[in-house]
From TrEMBL:
NCBIfam families xrefs: 2oxo_dh_E1, PRK09404.1, PRK12270.1
Entries under SUPFAM superfamilies matching the protein: Thiamin diphosphate-binding fold (THDP-binding) (SSF52518)
Family: Belongs to the alpha-ketoglutarate dehydrogenase family.
DNA damage keyword on record: no
One CC-aspect GO term: cytosol
Lineage, highest ranks first: Bacteria, Pseudomonadati, Pseudomonadota, Gammaproteobacteria, Alteromonadales
Name of protein: 2-oxoglutarate dehydrogenase E1 component
Transketolase-like pyrimidine-binding domain residues: 596-789
């Protein structure tokens, strides 16, 4: 009987589980300020457990257990609400629950859609009746708990209005999914204290109006002057212009020196002119078909990037708008990589010196996987940039598809951001003051917590996907509404006129002045400044061709000293047995007791560059140890899992060496490294694939940035890709790095494609990439079995020469005059051919290695051919199927190189739709056959 009575008392008590929110609200208020709660509650909280006599914040589970004990003992005094009685007690709890409901779900009733077409579901949690409250309670004063409106108590009627202004106005805030209490409280206080409305001065309001006038005026001008031309108009999302300007100004005021922007097509031309300060006359010339003929192929206007400086209260800020292909979201990791490079250059580890802003489309951010990859990277060691401000220009229609059930499976297009607990601020683009408030809050949040934040700018698209489309064909109701809807500039101007901030005459004057500025063709951005803040000088790397002189040689003593230095193991540092043997062997190699293997030579390349104060950045899914257990640049203590990186300790003054095992991504990570390399020419930037064919997942980066970025945009980039390649019987996906795809993209000397076959070659290739003052991508078909092949070794003397050999002639003692056939090849197959020839004592076939397939080394090949001018039988031997590898894409080079009257034939696998077979026995048969075909003369 006693237990049932106590249970009933606990269930009906204000401290029961159903009222936990009320107790926790009071307790959190007590923690912040003990005087903010009544004396009775303060006494109750004072009795909670202490540690070592010191009052601290106790886990909520402990607090709840303590209250249960108190209730069971009849000690939980109900005095704090006794005056109100049982009904008053329950209603106080319901009021706090109502506040919590608005924090959680207020965004679902917010006025976000300028067109009023959104049909949001009814949210019962936001109704008074759901909480057993009504308008009859409006005059009753309740405690507000942690509701940060600036007072402890308020009549329910006023509170209800305040909640709706804060959470259901033009801003819909999603942040209660965040688990970090400090971050949630920060957002609550920011929103609630101002009721989600900024206190703007007259000057600030006029500046916002100017931004809207510029956005609207630019589009109207282009539409009239170039009717029907594609421009991907911003009309409907005009608030983006004052928003971005506010972010830049705020970033500068907070100490940022650089802002890097990545965006898709829509609104790009508008931002170029109205934010970055591109001269309108230059844009108009582009519309008229005029262009700079020195810029290779060039690109369409709405892919173009731009750089300038922008005046802010904190001084000039350098702006960079990234070049962007039509694969829209791929620019996001590129921007992050560029920002990381700028931060590293400035020695900034928290992101405060450089701000990334990425601007997305609503369908694109929800639809493209690279967005998830980029969010996933945002807090990792190797890729964090102190948070990115992500803006979604939410037109509510993707191309021609407006049904959300066709474009995504979530309520909002921004739900993907919840994976990293980013706050999401939806805002009605027709309320520019709300847009400015959200911009300030987003920037302050990013700068405070160094995390991503998302702004969902809910707007509309006044025209079709481009200006030649007819949107009424697919969205008739939406476009009937849009046709009658006033532009944002008009809405805000009318508001300011009504409140007396400006007069109608002043508005017309501002419109006329902007139109006149466009007619004049001069820069229309008051904050534009000539560039002085750009933190890198590309001059030393511009205008060089492949034959630019360089000296990468080093003395043997220097090599030995550095080699021994990178083999030093800290005292008490216990290595895993295989790694310990690797370092013991490596030390023997550095002392000249053994020839160098691949890992030793590669490590020496990095050590020498670091000693010369060249920075190195190295990423990949298994970069630290190397997928095939050869690198082990990162040591792991078997006793406590501590890490030690010898390459970071070779000299007191050396280059920075960073190596990171990346997230399990190819596309976003490679794009990040491309962005890094385009912003930092002095760093040797390397991305390594776990297996070469994994680069398939980053094909868009390879196609649209690496291979063509210089030709389209004039963007130099020294990114190096290490792509393990070689037929070892491991099946279709672990054999080929798709060499043929890279060769197919070769033109205009756009990059280098190399297949090094010795440790000395990889050493000198990597040094050449850094020492030579030319910055173009390096694509390396790196090996697997050659990492430990007994014949794939080199001497320190070969390394010291500092020369990468594009062509390696016959190395055995074969008389050129007796040669009847020359076999040309690249990569691992060379050692199979060499083995077979030696075992069969063949003396009339020479084997030549082409180590650089592009740019094809015609001069070196011509010198080699001089020794075999009498040979008419030339063969290209490869492991890849005939339709893959180098044969189809490079045979024209082979034909150009051989003696007159000679012929080139193919030895290798037959054409195949798959890169390799999946059965080891079949692989071995094929390998044996292609070697025999290349080397047995009697089979002609």
């Amino acid at each position: 009987m006693h237990e049932s009575v106590m249970k009933a008392w606990w269930d009906s008590s204000h401290m029961a589980g159903g009222n936990a929110a009320y107790v926790e609200e009071l307790y959190e208020a007590y923690l912040e300020d003990p005087q903010s709660v009544s004396e009775e509650w303060r006494s109750t909280f004072d009795k909670l457990p202490k540690v070592d006599g010191v009052s601290i914040e106790t886990r909520h589970s402990v607090v709840r257990d303590e209250f249960k004990k108190m209730a069971a003992m009849g000690l939980a005094a109900r005095a704090p609400v006794a005056a109100a009685g049982e009904v008053g007690d329950q209603k106080q709890i319901k009021v706090l629950q109502l506040i919590n409901a608005y924090r959680f779900r207020g965004h679902q009733h917010a006025n976000l859609d300028p067109l009023g077409l959104w049909q949001q579901e009814r949210v019962r949690d936001l109704e008074l009746s759901h909480h057993s409250l009504s308008e009859q309670d409006f005059d009753t004063v309740f405690n507000l708990g942690s509701y940060a409106v600036g007072q402890e108590k308020m009549p329910l009627g006023e509170l209800f209005k305040s909640l709706n202004r804060t959470y259901c106005g033009s801003i819909g805030a999603e942040y209660m999914h965040i688990t970090n209490t400090e971050q949630k409280r920060w957002i609550q206080q920011y929103l609630e204290a101002a009721e989600a409305k900024p206190a703007l001065t007259k000057e600030q309001k006029v500046n916002v109006l100017k931004g809207l006038i510029a956005a609207d005026g630019m589009e109207k001008y282009l539409g009239a002057k170039f009717p029907g031309a594609k421009r991907f108009s911003l009309e409907g999302g005009d608030s983006l212009v004052p928003m971005v300007k506010a972010l830049i100004s705020g970033a500068g005021a907070a100490g940022s020196k650089e802002v890097v922007i990545g965006m898709a097509h829509r609104g790009r031309l508008n931002l170029l002119v109205n934010v970055l300060g591109k001269n309108p006359s230059v844009l108009f010339d582009e519309f008229s078909g005029l262009h700079d003929e020195s810029l290779g192929s060039g690109d369409v206007k709405y892919h173009a990037g731009y750089s300038s400086d922008f005046a802010t209260p904190g001084g000039p800020v350098h702006l960079a708008l990234a070049f962007n292909p039509s694969h829209l979201e791929i620019v996001n990791p590129v921007v992050m990589g560029s920002v990381r490079a700028r931060l590293d250059r400035r020695g900034c580890s928290d992101g405060s010196m450089s701000l990334p802003i990425t601007i997305h489309g609503d369908s694109a951010i929800a639809g493209q996987g690279v967005v998830q990859e980029t969010f996933n990277m945002s807090q990792t060691r190797g890729f964090q940039v102190g948070g990115t401000v992500r803006i979604v220009v939410n037109n509510q229609v993707g191309f021609t598809t407006s049904k959300t059930e066709d474009t995504r499976s979530t309520q909002y297009c921004t739900d993907i951001a919840k994976m990293v607990q980013a706050p999401i601020f939806h805002v009605n683009a027709d309320d520019p003051e709300a847009v400015i408030f959200v911009s300030q809050m987003a920037l302050d949040y990013r700068n405070t917590f160094k995390r991503d934040v998302v702004i969902d700018l809910v707007c509309y698209r006044r025209h079709g996907h481009n200006e030649a489309d007819e949107p009424n064909a697919t969205q008739p109701l939406m476009y009937q509404k849009i046709k009658k809807h006033p532009v944002p500039r008009q809405i805000y101007a009318d508001q300011l006129v009504a409140e007396g901030t400006v007069t109608a005459h002043e508005v017309e004057k501002l419109i006329s002045e902007y139109r006149a500025a466009l007619d004049h063709g001069a820069c229309v951005v008051e904050e534009w400044r000539p560039m002085t803040e750009h933190s890198v000088d590309w001059t030393p790397y511009i205008g060089h061709d492949w034959d630019v002189p360089y000296d990468a040689s080093l003395s043997l003593d220097t090599l030995k000293q550095l080699g021994e230095k990178v083999c030093e193991i800290p005292e008490g540092f216990k290595l895993q047995s295989r790694v310990n043997k690797l370092y013991a062997d490596r030390l023997s190699m550095m002392k000249g007791e053994k020839p160098l293997d691949w890992g030793a030579a590669e490590t020496l390349a990095y050590a020498t560059l670091l000693a010369e104060k060249t920075d190195i950045r190295f990423t990949g899914q298994d970069a630290g140890r190397g997928t095939f257990f050869h690198r082990h640049a990162v040591m792991h203590n078997q006793l406590d899992a501590a890490e030690h990186i010898p390459l970071q300790h070779i000299a007191e003054e050396q280059g920075v060496f960073e190596i990171y095992d990346s997230v399990l991504s190819e596309e976003a990570v490679m794009a990040f490294e491309f962005g890094y390399a385009t912003a930092e020419p002095g760093t040797l930037t390397i991305w390594e694939a776990q297996f070469g064919d994994f680069a398939n997942g980053a094909q868009v980066v390879i196609d649209q940035f690496l291979s063509s970025g210089e030709h389209k945009w004039g963007r130099l980039c020294g990114l190096t890709l290490l792509l393990p390649h070689g037929y070892e019987g491991q099946g279709p996906e672990h054999s080929s790095a798709r060499l043929e795809r890279f060769l197919q993209l070769c033109a205009d000397h756009n990059w280098q494609v190399c297949v090094p076959s010795t440790p000395a070659q990889v050493y000198n290739m990597l040094r050449r990439q850094a020492v030579r003052p030319m910055r173009r991508p390096l694509i390396v078909m790196s090996p697997k079995s050659l990492l430990r092949h007994p014949q794939a070794v080199s001497s320190l003397e070969e390394l010291a020469s500092g020369v990468f050999h594009n062509v390696i002639d016959e190395i055995d003692d074969i008389n050129p005059a007796k040669v009847k056939r020359v076999v040309m090849c690249s990569g691992k197959v060379y050692y199979d051919l060499l083995d077979y020839r030696r075992k069969n004592e063949i003396e009339d076939i020479a084997i030549v290695r082409i180590e650089q397939l592009y740019p094809f080394p015609h001069d070196e090949v011509e010198k080699m051919v001089e020794r075999y001018k009498h040979v008419k039988d030339w063969i290209w031997c490869q492991e890849e199927p005939q339709n893959q590898g180098a044969w189809y894409c490079s045979q024209h080079h082979f034909w150009d190189s051989i003696p007159e009257g000679a012929k080139v034939t193919y030895a290798g696998r037959a054409a195949s739709s798959a890169p390799a077979v999946g059965y080891l026995s079949v692989h071995n048969q094929q390998q044996k056959k292609l070697v025999e075909e290349a080397l047995e003369l009697n089979k002609d």
